[in-house]
Design a protein that fits this description.
Layout lengths: L1 H6 L5 H22 L4 H4 L3 H10 L4 H15 L28 H7 L4 H10 L3 H5 L6 E4 L2 E6 L8 E4 L3 H4 L4
Antiparallel strand pairs: 1-2, 2-3
Helix pairs in contact: 2-5, 4-5, 6-7
């Protein structure tokens, strides 16, 4: 209940929902590992939880997401927590191997769509985002290639780090 007061002040409903899930997971961890009984007792285990997530091989960005929700709830400045550094090259944005259940796996076998699906598998860009790309969207800045995504998921603009620029340059 103490945490709900803090989280209810967050204006965006999706963020609020995600933070509540994160806090529930953290409280379960505190109860399981340290047998905590009160809201205030949980506050002292935030760094321990961060260390636990690292040992479980969570990505730096995932740890940051989980810890930020917990810190917001307990009013702990995020900078006080020793956490792994996030780096853009670690973001995969869906660049995982295809599984049989995905329709794109069938498309990969279709010669008509082969280049399109190969581009998506390299970049992780969604089909709708891909349809809006122009030649100007490949951006080279500070020695790194990125693809500019306008009106991506949630209507947000973003940059996608390019892991294999030599493979995607011909498309642009």
């Amino acid at each position: 209940d103490e945490c709900n007061e803090v989280l209810n002040q967050i204006p965006h409903n999706l963020t609020k929902k995600n933070y509540k899930q994160i806090v529930r997971r953290y409280v379960d961890y505190c109860r399981r590992e340290f047998d905590v009984q009160t809201f205030e007792e949980c506050k002292s285990y935030i760094q321990t939880y961060c260390d636990y997530l690292q040992k479980q091989n969570y990505a730096a960005s995932t740890i940051h997401t989980y810890i930020s929700g917990v810190c917001k709830c307990w009013g702990v400045p995020l900078k006080l927590i020793d956490k792994p550094i996030r780096h853009i090259s670690q973001y995969t944005k869906g660049r995982t191997k295809y599984k049989e259940r995905y329709r794109s796996c069938e498309d990969l076998q279709n010669e008509r769509w082969h280049e399109l699906v190969e581009f998506q598998s390299i970049t992780g860009i969604r089909r709708a985002e891909l349809a809006r790309l122009t030649g100007k969207d490949l951006v080279f800045k500070d020695g790194i290639y990125n693809i500019f995504i306008k009106n991506g998921k949630g209507g947000k603009d973003s940059f996608v780090y390019v892991h294999e620029p030599e493979k995607i340059k011909p498309y642009f």
